[in-house]
Write a structure and sequence with these properties.
Elements lengths: L11 E10 L11 E7 L3 E3 L3 E2 L5 E7 L9 E8 L4 E6 L3 E3 L15 E9 L4 E5 L3 E3 L4 E10 L4 E10 L12 E12 L2 E12 L2 H4 L9 E8 L6 H13 L7 E7 L2 E8 L2 H18 L17 H8 L2
Parallel strand pairs: 1-6, 5-7, 6-9, 7-10, 8-11, 9-12, 10-13, 11-13, 12-14
Antiparallel strand pairs: 1-2, 3-5, 4-5, 13-16, 14-15, 16-18, 17-18
Helix pairs in contact: 2-3, 3-4
């Protein structure tokens, strides 16, 4: 599976990561994950670190100033049995406008990203990139494919700003496309846990059934280990809806058969991020894991009031 076309010019960046279970060789056999990586420009892996429960936090840096039409990125991750990792990005990703700027490609050219996550048994992967900002007339397409097992887990959240609204800019003729496919291996068969395909452009940007002229869209998806009960998931969804208090925007959250899905529409990427951070904290608590720590590279973090809200339930 690949979005890459040999006929398309542009920067083709690939980041290959493998999470490795080092618990056996660690002191007293405590949980410990490390990794191996191979990247080419514009990707670079920054120095990572383990938290107290052995989860490895890996910051990924995109060294270019942003994406232009024809640029294509691939992030491929294999999480070995029993590993736990948190992948994040060092800075917001920018996508520059191309529609109407070239006589050769007047319709514009797409920047694309492919994420492929192969999560083994008893493994736990979290993918929390920073905000994606699409400039006026920018075109961006992302495809994400996830494979996991009954006792493994995958959590991701994304916040997208359509246009540099601080300058009064809108997306214009630009577009954002996203497709997420998550399937579970059960008894040598595959079961689809979550499939989601969206395109935000044209009328969908202004329609009351779309973004209603709001510039920020956010999405969080958690596919849980199957031993998490339906009652726990519905209670988690109820708690998540309560956690939107004091935040601006429209927020919705619902339980899946084996997970949770949350959406944000509004004007504040900070509000979207804070709400997702609160949900993230409650997911960790439900699983008896350590609370999310403040990510070293993120410019906006939760405050003590918010953390208290997450921990009081």
């Amino acid at each position: 599976m690949s979005l890459i076309s040999p006929k398309e010019s542009g920067w083709h960046g690939v980041c290959d990561l493998r999470l490795i279970n080092r618990s056996i060789s660690s002191k007293l056999g405590e949980p410990f994950t490390s990794y191996q990586a191979r990247c080419n420009a514009p990707f670079k892996i920054m120095r990572g670190s383990n938290n107290s429960d052995g989860r490895f936090e890996i910051p990924i840096l995109h060294t270019a100033g942003g994406l232009v039409g024809g640029d294509q990125l691939e992030v491929n991750v294999i999480a070995d049995i029993g590993t736990s990792g948190l992948l994040t990005t060092v800075a917001a990703q920018k996508v520059y406008g191309t529609v109407g700027l070239s006589l050769i490609h007047p319709q514009g050219r797409w920047a694309k990203q492919l994420c492929d996550f192969d999560i083994s048994k008893k493994a736990d992967l979290e993918w929390f990139p920073q905000e994606l900002v699409i400039f006026a007339n920018g075109l961006f397409e992302q495809n994400m494919h996830v494979d996991l097992y009954p006792d493994s887990s995958f959590l991701t959240a994304e916040v997208v700003r359509l246009g540099r609204t601080a300058d009064g800019e809108k997306l214009g003729a630009g577009s954002w496309r996203s497709r997420i496919e998550i399937c579970r291996h059960i008894d040598d068969k595959k079961k689809w846990e979550f499939v989601d395909q969206l395109e935000l452009s044209g009328e969908a940007l202004s329609s009351d059934h779309g973004l209603a002229d709001q510039p920020v869209f956010g999405s969080l998806v958690w596919i849980a280990p199957t031993m998490i009960t339906s009652e726990d998931l519905h209670e988690l969804a109820d708690q998540s809806r309560e956690l939107k208090i004091d935040l601006e925007g429209t927020m919705a959250c619902s339980a899946l058969d084996h997970g949770l899905s949350a959406r944000y529409i509004g004007s504040s990427s900070q509000a979207a991020r804070l709400w997702f951070y609160r949900i993230w904290g409650n997911i960790r608590k439900l699983r008896n894991l350590t609370s999310p720590t403040k990510l070293r590279f993120w410019p906006i973090q939760e405050n003590l009031i918010t953390e208290t809200m997450c921990n009081k339930n």
